[in-house]
Write a structure and sequence with these properties.
Strands 2-1-5-4-3-6-7 form a 7-stranded mixed β-sheet. The longest helix is centred in the first third of the chain and has 22 residues, at about 1-25. It has helices spanning about 1-25, 70-90, 110-115, 130-135, 165-175; strands at about 40, 50-55, 60-65, 90-100, 125, 145, 155-160. The chain is of the alpha/beta class.
């Protein structure tokens, strides 16, 4: 009887630890294999001048953020993203991507309007077939990634973060 109680307790502790890691947005740093670039549909919004964008862009550090217009945390992150974008300059590919099912409950125009209302001033795109979402194994929003110039994920973070952390991770990937 005691052995079974011990095993059940150990299993419960492991599940609790895993749940805590998700709940507290544990940051994972990885030096992984290079990620293949994917083509995404650009949403007509400020600073979104092309029809498509390839990301990540080899030869440049890439900051990539997955978001949704219905996500309150995503909305609260916009001032932090604006500050980070303004600080990093043109040497970094800075991109936000929605994986919402456009044309169903939200339209491209809805995303563009949301983008303008929240001062988005960099390229915003749609991951219509979820290729990018699957490639990065992103299990929610917001989800942020920094990739180095060789397209290797150097930082990934789910949940809220701030402009200083984003800038710190981008600078680390530039080294």
């Amino acid at each position: 009887m005691r052995r079974r109680d011990l095993l059940v307790g150990a299993g419960s502790l492991a599940a609790l630890g895993g749940g805590a890691a998700v709940a507290f947005d544990v940051v994972e740093t990885t030096d992984s294999a290079a990620v293949e670039a994917v083509s995404l549909d650009v949403i007509a919004a400020p600073e979104s001048n092309a029809d498509t964008v390839m990301t990540p862009e080899r030869g440049r550090v890439t900051f990539l953020e997955l978001f949704a217009t219905w996500c309150n945390v995503c909305e609260s992150m916009m001032p932090e993203l604006v500050a980070a974008h303004d600080a990093v300059g043109e040497d970094v590919q800075f991109l936000s991507v929605t994986n919402e099912p456009l044309g169903e409950t939200v339209t491209r125009e809805d995303v563009a309007t949301w983008w303008r209302e929240h001062s988005g001033a960099w390229t915003v795109a749609a991951d219509r077939d979820l290729t990018l979402t699957r490639e990065f194994e992103a299990s929610g929003v917001p989800y942020a990634f920094v990739l180095d110039a060789q397209n290797r994920v150097r930082w990934r973070h789910r949940g809220r973060t701030d402009a200083e952390e984003i800038r710190t991770q981008i600078r680390a990937a530039e080294e």
